[in-house]
């Protein structure tokens, strides 16, 4: 088996004569289209020694809502139904896009943060971070509940926290996701990274709580603080070396503990 990860189901079926053993439901961290690939390229290498192969569904820009009620909900359900008896694990990458991008991040910030010196104070009371992350928590819990109900009892769900993205305005094809909203809200430059860190930490708390609810089936890859600035290709996505480092340093130990990697 030369390649053990697929994003195209038709190509997978033409190439392989068996069902995938790992389903990867994800956003651009699983679908990043540029040279060097995404997490999936390196996760495929990590699980290859255990004779696993991965089928990825979702797409760049996917939000947690999309997997359970939105544009990829049908695809998720069909994949779980179709491959349920063979799946040993489901990987999830989602939630980052829920607060990335001007339309997502800007409403979370106050109209004018120019007088604030605390990152927490830069966020608006309405909708409020508690309400926002309660919605993310609900989408995730419904998704992992669906996975748990649709797969074998030994299937493991692996989630991850991303890392502390750098709001430097670097984007793809002229678009960036974090700095425009922070600048529009007049967040002081030295607080912008702290605002992003706060969001990632709150997201990690959501995932930690979910994993604590069923440690037998749920695993968390806590990749916060793994990447140095040179490991970021742009505001949201690591370089190939960054993705590789995340898998080597953070994903592989979790996968080994779960029996999915050597």
TrEMBL record:
<protein>
    <recommendedName>
        <fullName>SGNH hydrolase-type esterase domain-containing protein</fullName>
    </recommendedName>
</protein>
<feature type="domain" description="SGNH hydrolase-type esterase">
    <location>
        <begin position="24"/>
        <end position="244"/>
    </location>
</feature>
<dbReference type="InterPro" id="IPR013830">
    <property type="entry name" value="SGNH_hydro"/>
</dbReference>
<dbReference type="Pfam" id="PF13472">
    <property type="entry name" value="Lipase_GDSL_2"/>
</dbReference>
<dbReference type="InterPro" id="IPR036514">
    <property type="entry name" value="SGNH_hydro_sf"/>
</dbReference>
<dbReference type="GO" id="GO:0016788">
    <property type="term" value="F:hydrolase activity, acting on ester bonds"/>
</dbReference>
């Amino acid at each position: 088996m030369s390649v053990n990860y697929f994003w195209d189901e038709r190509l997978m079926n033409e190439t392989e004569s068996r069902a995938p053993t790992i389903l990867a439901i994800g956003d651009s961290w699983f679908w990043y289209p540029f040279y060097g690939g995404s997490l999936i390229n390196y996760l495929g290498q990590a699980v290859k020694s255990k004779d696993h192969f991965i089928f990825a569904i979702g797409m760049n820009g996917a939000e947690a809502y999309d997997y359970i009620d939105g544009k990829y909900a049908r695809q998720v359900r069909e994949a779980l139904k179709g491959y349920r008896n063979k799946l040993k694990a489901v990987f999830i990458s989602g939630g980052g896009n829920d607060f990335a991008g001007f339309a997502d991040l800007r409403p979370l910030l106050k109209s004018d943060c120019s007088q604030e010196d605390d990152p927490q104070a830069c966020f608006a009371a309405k909708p409020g971070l508690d309400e926002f992350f309660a919605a993310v928590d609900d989408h995730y819990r419904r998704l992992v509940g669906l996975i748990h109900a649709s797969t074998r009892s030994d299937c493991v769900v692996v989630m991850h926290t991303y890392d502390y993205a750098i709001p430097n305005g670097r984007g793809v094809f002229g678009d960036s996701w974090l700095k425009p909203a922070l600048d529009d809200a007049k967040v002081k430059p030295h607080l912008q990274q702290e605002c992003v860190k706060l969001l990632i930490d709150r997201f990690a708390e959501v995932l930690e709580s979910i994993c604590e609810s069923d440690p037998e089936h749920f695993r968390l890859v806590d990749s916060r603080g793994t990447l140095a600035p040179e490991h970021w290709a742009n505001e949201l996505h690591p370089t190939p070396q960054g993705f590789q480092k995340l898998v080597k340093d953070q994903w592989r130990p979790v996968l080994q503990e779960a029996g999915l990697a050597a």
